[in-house]
Amino acid sequence: MVTTRSTAVPSRSFRRWCVPAVQFDDSFHDDMLEGGIILREIPDERGVVLWATYRDALLWNSTGGSRSNLFSSAALTRRFQQIETAAINGNISAVLRTLTILTLGPPAGSAGPVEIADHCGRIAEWAETAGFRRTGVHFAQAAAASIPDSATAALRVGQMATRSLLPELASSWFNRAVALGRRTGDSESITSALLELGRLSLTRGEVGQAESWFAFAARVARRAGHRTMRGEAAQGLLEVAAASRHYALAFQHARRALRLLGASHPLRPAVLHRLAEVILQKAEVLSNPDRSDAGLRAFRMVSSILPRPDGVENVRSYFVLLRAALTAKLQPELEVAWFAAIAAIGDLGETRVAARLYMELAVIGAEIIDRRRADDALVRAQLVGARIGDTALLAELETLQLRPLVRTPEASSR
Amino acid sequence: MKISPRPLFVLHHDEQFIGLIARAAGHQYGLHSFRTWTELHAAISAAPPSLLVVVDPFSGVVEREIAPELRTLALDFPSTPLIAAFSIRQTDSEMLLRLAKYGVCSVINIGHDDTLPAVIQRLAGALGRPLKHLVTLALPTNLPGRAHAIIDAAAETVTFGGDARDLAGALDMSRRTLLRWVLASKLPAPRRLLAWMRILLAANLLDDRARGVADVARTCGYSSDSGLRRITTRFTGYSPTELRQRGAFARASKAFLEELALHRDDVARDRPTGAE
């Protein structure tokens, strides 16, 4: 007997996701004037033009329906004159002119929000490149406000806020990107936002939370078939496992990340660097012959990624190389790596970061080579610190010099 | 709690512009026009927190210079949202920054956005900005972005006497969703959060040197100063007068942050795996 189901299985209903409100960076940490940070970042005629343009774009976005009487009839001509006389960089001046026509031009309101968002996005990129980061964030927000359903636009604001060291603002925009991505089925933006949230949690030291974000990102990327993003999630999980000293898990994630990222992905060196660190950490508990093997493995791994394009990452990889050479008992390579590390820090110029890295090198030098080398690095740190007037660093160096730097048994036996 | 309708005070020499403001005010605001800074100053001290003030920053000054009375006004009533209405020139960068420093939170650019729809938007945008500004400054940096957004909206909601329903509306979500989001953000329940925002609003007004405690109570919607005293004592442990002596907003925001931290610890203990 054939039976039929009396009630049909209900079709999977679409869940209506509520999109979280975002914290709008409106210069609140500085003063109350909307967009005031633009004037402070660019305190000249260009700043006034950009500030006014930003306000116009926001006003255009916040006014629904007909915008034909939004601005006065003389507004367009006046703004054009201002752009002409403000000596704004050629390319961006053209973008500003177009945005002005779109927002103020007759018939006002005929422009589409996507065009407005596109032009605001271009100004944001220009501002960020020119070093006006908060101005960039403001224009990126104006772009996202033009197309409030776009997960990509929300993601861009978050990324720009991250680079401008505004992590709370960034996290609220990433959350919004996730919700918008779910609504519009934009799995790429969802995964990117989840990865960014994971990285933000890692920088805050919230390892458990970071693991949840990366695992979530990995799930979404797997379902949507984004191979490299799965690799990026695996790289994040590797960072989490390494931070928690779960070595077996770290190796597993590293293998997966390397397989998924492929040979030319820019994150590959970061994975190899972290993997080498994990190998060296694990080698600390091994017996002597095994330790040398592990050191050699880590040494080869790090050598394959050097030099790295990012100056600071490059130096950090040389630090791992130094430790690997010591563990593998490669004395000549250790010497070469030492001078390469010094040169790599030198390439960073006389900066705060360079001074700090010299100090770190001094500690490494005392641990793995000898006190003379450590003193050399300390003197360099002091010189750079004094030149840039980093009093906090100089005080730290004083205490470091007073403290006898510990030498490992390996260093003592040489 | 009953809050009086939003008053809109204008000090401007241009009658045509005042007419435009009157049209923009519509039924939402009660427009009052003033001729001198002294009249305006006296009127603000008795006005409710939902007050908006539109001024010509050069009023009463011969040169194109910011009137010193505007600075006095900003110092005496830092909780009042000030909107400057004047024709912005390209060389006004320094002047705009000075206005921002004096507490001006928005500008109507005459000859550019002095149109009815634009002015309506500018007025709406300025409402509640001083309290939002102060609350944002007081909040800890490790507070999740979502929590920031909810607190921002709560600060705006209380300035026009809104309740939990209005807060949900401001965040474009239902009351149930708001409750879920508030819990997920490890914040107190919406009603409690709004009560705290009212305390902060009152504390902000208490810091205005030119306002009496009774004025603050009345402008915040309390029938007498005893109502305000009861609520500030329950939430912060201090009466309005004691709060004022100790720096009202600083003290009240400290108590708010302590409760926030306590609440976050409680939630973390109950739900160790809670998302942001």
Overview of this structure, please?
- The complex is a heterodimer of chains A (414) and B (276).
- Chain A has helices at residues 36-41, 45-62, 75-85, 90-104, 113-129, 133-146, 151-163, 167-184, 187-204, 207-224, 227-243, 247-261, 268-283, 288-303, 311-327, 331-346, 352-368, 371-388, 391-402, 409-413.
- With 414 residues, chain A is mostly helical.
- Chain B has a five-stranded parallel β-sheet, with helices on both faces.
- In chain B, α7 packs across α10 and α10 packs antiparallel against α14 (248-270).
- The radius of gyration of chain B is 20 Å and the shape is globular.
- Classes of the chains: A mainly alpha (414), B alpha/beta (276).
- Chains A and B meet through α1, α2, α3, α8 and α10 of A and α4, β5, α5, α6 and α7 of B.
- SSE string of chain B: EHEHEHEHEHHHHHHHHHH
Helix content of chain B: 55-70%
Q: What percentage of the residues of chain B does DSSP assign to strands (E)?
A: 5-15%
Count of DSSP strands of chain A: 0
The number of helical segments of chain B is: 14
Q: What is the average per-residue confidence, as pLDDT of chain A, rounded to a whole number?
A: 85
Q: Descriptors for this entry?
A:
heterodimer, A: mainly alpha, 20 helices, disordered N terminus, disordered C terminus, B: 276 residues, alpha/beta, five-stranded parallel β-sheet, 10% strand, globular
In short, what is this structure?
The complex is a heterodimer of chains A (414) and B (276). With 414 residues, chain A is an all-alpha fold.
